[in-house]
Write a structure and sequence with these properties.
This protein has about 250 residues and is of the alpha/beta class. The protein has helices at about 20-30, 45-55, 65-80, 105-130, 155-175, 195-200, 200-210, 220-230; strands at about 10-15, 35-40, 55-60, 85-90, 135-140, 180-185, 240. It has a single domain (about 5-190, about 220-245), classed as NAD(P)-binding Rossmann-like Domain (Rossmann fold), CATH 3.40.50.720. It is built from eight helices and seven strands; from the N terminus they run βαβαβαβαβαβαααβ. The chain has a seven-stranded parallel sheet, sandwiched between helices. Bound molecules: nicotinamide-adenine-dinucleotide. Nicotinamide-adenine-dinucleotide binds near residues 19 and 45.
Amino acid sequence: MATYPEMKNRAVAITGAAAGIGEVAARSFYQQGAHVYLLDIDQAGIEKIATELGERAHPIQVDITNPESVSETFKAIDRAGNGLDVFINCAGGYQKLLNVENMDLEEWDKTISLNLRAVFLCCQAAIPRLKKSKAGRIINVTSISGRTVHATSSPAYGSAKAGVTQLTRFLAYELGQYGITANTIAPLTTLTPRVAALRTPEDVAKIASQVPLGRLAVEDDHVSAMLYLASDGAAFVTGVALDTNGGRVML
Ligand SMILES: NC(=O)c1ccc[n+]([C@@H]2O[C@H](COP(=O)([O-])OP(=O)(O)OC[C@H]3O[C@@H](n4cnc5c(N)ncnc54)[C@H](O)[C@@H]3O)[C@@H](O)[C@H]2O)c1
């Protein structure tokens, strides 16, 4: 992993930091010397990781679908006194794989709430804090499901992720005047512990065969892109959707 000395003592908040891509992001930004706010609904998970990491790791329990909980979380970030330089919306996902015709409204609303409304809530709260940073960054994690259509994804999830891509362009447009960038990364199926447990070797081989680079993603594929987008070298990159999906988006 590349090193970014400018990340030392910057303040980075990451939702979904208790597991998967968000956890690896939290550990990696910590290794770069940042203060890391681990935001997740899974309190035990973030506390365990923060204890392993050390004193620059700050676990804060949040339900990102709940506006009061989001508001309290940002007050806790303020109280910690390190400011806020980078906000990464990584929490997301969906429960049921249903097509449009069979989609129940509850699943639609829950999926839009977690994957789009929550990103809006967190970005809105982050903006006044990021304006005080000299290198403000928003990084939103979407999915190849929001970039192209394929049979094994949820229409609600794909629609929410596509919405995040467009929300991010608005953020880039509105916040450029403050030197704040806003970008997305769009992962492919990633061999996180959760996904690895769900997929058979045959599933993995089939997905890999549809990827120009011939494999599924690993967490570091996305985290290295996050580190770059957070870095000073990416200060003039904004409104971009970075396809960390091995070229699968082209097909
Ligand atoms: N893993 C993949 O294959 C894959 C592929 C494409 C996109 N993505 C996207 O990448 C991101 C991370 O995915 P992952 O698979 O690494 O995640 P994961 O499912 O392993 O972890 C998600 C984390 O979010 C937390 N969370 C869930 N609901 C929350 C809420 N309401 N408030 C706060 N925290 C909450 C969970 O507790 C968990 O720690 C997601 O946005 C996902 O849509 C993942």
